[in-house]
Amino acid sequence: MAGIKAVLIPGDGIGPEISEAVKLILSEADVPVEWQVAEAGISVKERCPSGIPEETIDLIKQYRIALKGPTTTPSGTGHQSVNVAIRKSLGLYANVRPARSLPGLNTRFSNVNLVTIRENIEDTYSGTEYMQSANVAESLKLITRVGSERCIRFAFEYARRQQISKITCVHKANIHKLSDGLFLEVFNRVREEYPGIEAENMLVDNACMQLVSRPEQFRLLVMPNLYGDILSDLCAGLIGGLGVAPSGNIGNGVAVFEAVHGSAPDIAGKGIANPTALLRSALMMLVHLGLNSYATAIENALFECFKEGLTTADLGGSLSTMEFARAVADRTAKVSSGEGVADEPKNVQELFVSSGDLKFNKIASKTVKGIDVYVCSEGVPGAPQRSGNLNLYAVANRGARVLGENSLRDQVDVYCLRYLSEKPVSDEEIESLLKMFKEGRLSWVQCYKLLELDGKAAYSEIN
After folding, report:
1. Is this structure's pTM higher than 0.85?
2. How far is the C-alpha of 437 from the C-alpha of 457, rounded, in Å?
3. Do 222 and 257 sit in the same domain of this protein?
4. CA–CA gap between residue 212 and residue 224 (Å, rounded)
5. Whole-angstrom Cα distance, residue 269 to residue 186?
6. Cα–Cα distance measured from residue 259 to residue 66, given in angstroms and rounded to the nearest whole number
7. For the chain, what is the domain count?
8. Which of 161, 294, 304, 313 is least crowded, fewest Cβ atoms below 10 Å from its Cβ?
9. Which residue blocks in 39-91 are alpha helix, DSSP H?
10. Mean pLDDT, contiguous 10-residue spans, the chain (463 residues)
């Protein structure tokens, strides 16, 4: 059987150790995969600030399939997350995280069998942030119609193929009425195309509570990026932690499977790291490649080790990383030797769910009806009350309307001045208003046009 070329990114910290363990198990099972090793992470940061060299991205684009070990992401400073960089560079718009109770592992719940599908590129993970002043930081939450539909349509197609009968959309549209509201709107439209799948929506805070109370009520959850990051880890906790949780990132024609746990530099080189998460991610990769029998044989062997207590210390056993890998390999039925049905690898380009024809919404009219101007000021700014047709509507601080001197106590040094007009506003009118700010020595840092789309306000209210 001809081998499939796949990229292997060992990563850093414990990454190289657990990657070797996974390679051993797959090799002993005669899995027809040929590894093309590539670099990413701290080891390349001096010559590549992003932590992911262009040649690694090019290699993944060439072979379409990759398995990635953990990489270190500094908090606050240093290079950005390698995981985020890979997802953006390759357009890996859907993150798939199965969470199923595993035999032999003693956890609080024994009836978990669900999948989280997370939009993987947008939301606050665009990384678009600003310091408006020395005391105020701003992060933009970007949700698009195309990005939402791509992920949601993938989730419904995944459910159809896996014969999953229920999907829950997780959101916070009661607060983020425009951004999460758009995600929910797209979900409600796409669900109409899949009448055989039960579809519901749930606020993210309620979903967290329900997951740790009755996880058996869920089968597939689809959600924006940030909620997905949090909830998928929560779901991993239900089945034994990140050390046993697999993950796959799917795009148009490219897939990267990865262990999502940390690089654990404190135990790197000690030979005690648990390779289960990376192994189960590799099994997801095999299923994606159509090599189901190999995946099943290795998974059965893994479960036998769990039942026999043959695990690494974090799961209650005493085996080293490679001893654990050898135990799994020794219990794996050789699919290629006749003890199972050997699968023929599929053409990689046939393995991806089509995201359909995604189209932008067309609008009949777009009108500028006002402007939000953000200014730096140590107290309530003395702003112009009027400029042409623009009238001062509200002064706000941290999203709340300033209501006289009694509200000064908790204010920060960036204010939003909202101007509205009953008539359409021209660029010249906006420029005239900003000129008045300059003449009044008001330091404005940002301004946003306030739009009406088809006659409806396309901006949030100030409370």
Report:
1. yes
2. 25
3. no
4. 20
5. 47
6. 12
7. 3
8. 161
9. 54-63, 82-90
10. 86 94 96 93 75 91 95 61 86 95 91 96 91 94 95 95 96 97 97 97 98 97 97 96 95 92 91 96 94 94 95 94 97 62 50 58 91 94 94 94 68 95 96 94 94 95 89
